[in-house]
Structure formats: structure tokens, C-alpha cells
Amino acid sequence: xxxxxxxxxxxxxxxxxxxxxxxxxxxxxxxxxxxxxxxxxxxxxxxxxxxxxxxxxxxxxxxxxxxxxxxxxxxxxxxxxxxxxxxxxxxxxxxxxxxxxxxxxxxxxxxxxxxxxxxxxxxxxxxxxxxxxxxxxxxxxxxxxxxxxxxxxxxxxxxxxxxxxxxxxxxxxxxxxxxxxxxxxxxxxxxxxxxxxxxxxxxxxxxxxxxxxxxxxxxxxxxxxxxxxxxxxxxxxxxxxxxxxxxxxxxxxxxxxxxxxxxx
Length: 264
Ligand code: NAP
Ligand code: GCO
Hints:
Layout: E1 11-15, H1 20-31, E2 35-40, H2 43-55, E3 61-64, H3 70-83, E4 89-92, H4 107-135, E5 138-143, H5 156-176, E6 181-188, H6 210-218, H7 231-238, E7 249-252
Parallel strand pairs: 1-2, 1-4, 2-3, 4-5, 5-6, 6-7
The structure holds NADP nicotinamide-adenine-dinucleotide phosphate and D-gluconic acid (GCO).
């Protein structure tokens, strides 16, 4: 059974993985035997990422690519196939958030979030699926969110994108399951990364940020998640152990979605 969770001989592309959740997922996949490929928008971040992977004992392949640029993504996939190998595992991790009250949000800002968080997973998945079919199968993991299920103030674009990403996940599973491609999602809860740093900044008087206190009261685990909490679930969904799991969103949230919240 333990071999079912191994990724030896597999090539994994994790988008936006110089740091944060993507870096943690890629590191876990490397420890399970996968060859790691990642991209970021800036060469400086790719270089920093390569150094960070090296420090973790991982020889990662890093490329500059904006995942919203379809031509650039197609060129990236061709370059990876030529230089590393066919992509067996795709993790659509790259993402942004803009926290703005909806009526104050410009259509441009709304479109930018949809572009990165929803259109890009479509573009990258579309680019890798043909070779997965030729190879006899593959794994696609879309990084969804609590906001694939719930809304909250100021995150309208992000919630719309992540809700759409949940359904894109189910649709890829439906359309390509016949080719032995499994497409699933991971829905992280509130994870301590640069993306959520503004929600955790201590107050001037040294007290916890109100949102920090709010999330702790809503989380049965009574803590923020760490990016490393996502490694095991990602390895499971990338491995043969999940070959009959398709179209599923695995929430890794410490129990938030199950819990009404601690009485104030
Ligand atoms: P993060 O720290 O902000 O990292 C996001 C990564 O995506 C960065 O490396 C960023 O590169 C890259 N990226 C952004 N736009 C890109 C583009 N157009 N092309 C290529 N790379 C791009 O975020 P995170 O917290 O690790 O989150 C990773 C994923 O998990 C996101 O999809 C996020 O929505 C999701 N998520 C996060 C949480 C959480 O609580 N942190 C919870 C649920 C879901 P640059 O630095 O160059 O912009
Ligand atoms: C926010 C947070 C969340 C997390 C994550 C929760 O502003 O509410 O950024 O959106 O990033 O998506 O699952």
C-alpha cells in the first residue's frame, strides 16, 4: 500500500511555487519521488525558488511564465516536455486575491482576479491534457478555497473565481476521466502564507488582528493552517492511491466547514 503514495518517475508542474502553498506542495511531492517543475512571473522569484528548493535538497526546474498568457503557457509546456519530460501531475496553484468591497471594485480588478484564479487553470490544464492522454493518464489538482463554498465581505472576485474553479475541476473530471485523468481540488482553509499576512498582522497595541481571532474561533483545530499541512493531501491526490477519486474537492481546513464557531 505504501507504494501507492509514491510519485517516483513522475513529472509534476506546480504553478506559482517559488514560495507559499505551491512550494510546500512541490516539496512534499519531491519527497514522494516526483521531479519538480515550477514557474513564477519574475526571474528573480524563480531564482529564489530554485535556491530554496536546493536548500531543501531538491533539484527543481524553474521557468518564468505568466499563467494568464496562453501563448506563454503553451511555450512553457513544450519547453518542459523537451527539457524535463511530459507533465504527469499539474497543480494549478498560482493565484491572487484583491480584498475590495464589491461596489468599490473596478471591473479591471475583478477581471484580473478571474484571469489568474480561474482562466489560468483552464489555460494550463488545456495545455497539458493532450500529452496526458497520449501518455495514458495524468493528475490535475486545482487549488480551490473556503471561498469555493462560502462568501465574505471584500472577496467577491476571489469567491467567484474559486467557485468557478470548483466547477471547472468537476468538469475536467467529467470530460477526461475516460482517459485515466483524475482532476480533483484541494480547498485549503486559512493558511499562514504571504497571501493572508494582512489578516494576521498584530494590532498596534500588540493584540491579535480581529480577523486572526475570528478565524481561530471558527476553526475547531484552533490554529491557522501551515502550508506544510497541504503536502500530504496533495501527494495523495497526485498518487495512484487516488486513481478512483475524481471531481472531488478535498477541504484541508482544520474543520472550519463543519463548525458553527466558538460561542463568543
Ligand atoms: P501567495 O503566497 O500569494 O503565492 C501565490 C503565488 O502565485 C506566488 O508565487 C505568485 O507569484 C504566483 N502568481 C500569482 N500570479 C501569477 C501569474 N499570473 N503567473 C504565475 N504565477 C503567479 O499565495 P498562497 O497563499 O501560497 O496561495 C497559493 C494558492 O492557494 C492560491 O491559488 C490561493 O488562492 C490558494 N489559497 C490560499 C489560502 C491561504 O489561506 N493562503 C487558502 C486557500 C487557497 P508572484 O509572487 O510573482 O506574484
Ligand atoms: C480571505 C483569505 C481567504 C484565504 C483562503 C481561504 O481574505 O478571506 O485570503 O480567501 O486566502 O482562500 O480558504
